[in-house]
Specification:
The protein is an alpha+beta fold and 165 residues long. Helices cover 33% and strands 12% of the residues. It has 5 helices and 8 strands; from the N terminus they run E-E-H-H-E-E-E-E-H-H-H-E-E. The strands form 3 sheets. A 4-stranded antiparallel beta sheet has the order 3-4-5-6, with helices on one face. Strands 1-2 form a two-stranded parallel sheet. A hairpin with a 6-residue loop joins strand 3 and strand 4. The model has no long low-confidence stretch (mean pLDDT 85).
Amino acid sequence: MKAAVVFINSHFTLFNVAVGKPLLLPTQIHHHIQTMDQFPPITDSLRVVVQELLRNKAKAEPFRKNIPLYRFEELKKGIRCRACGDIVVPLNTKFYRCSNCSSTGNVTQAILDAAREFQLLFPNMKLTVSSLYEWCGKSCAKQRFSNVLTANFIAQGKYRGTYYL
């Protein structure tokens, strides 16, 4: 079984399409239906097998059901090392050095990683300068977080109510 995007508008033309893409243009539909007729028909016995498989199929648990419950207040806050995941303290405004694995990294990149981590862990909370500042353990100036968020995310709102997507 193959999936394809089917364009049914006879006045539609698609230019510069890469060869091999699963697209069916209006002029190809008739030929495609003819090639489908060459396959053997679905028999009643095959339908019974499919229904049995569907009936006995184990319910797939969404991956989030296996994650333990956690709250923002309970988790350890701070900027994390990209190499080992340990909490780091910035050396200066540009770099940090991890006391656990001795690797160095860019503070701006670490703040971006922390912002993405915050969005993943707390999808119902808004990403704001204050929330990221607290999530990173207040390890840099608040203005630094504001600059990173403004440069790399889309701001929603203005002034005190600003959050980032």
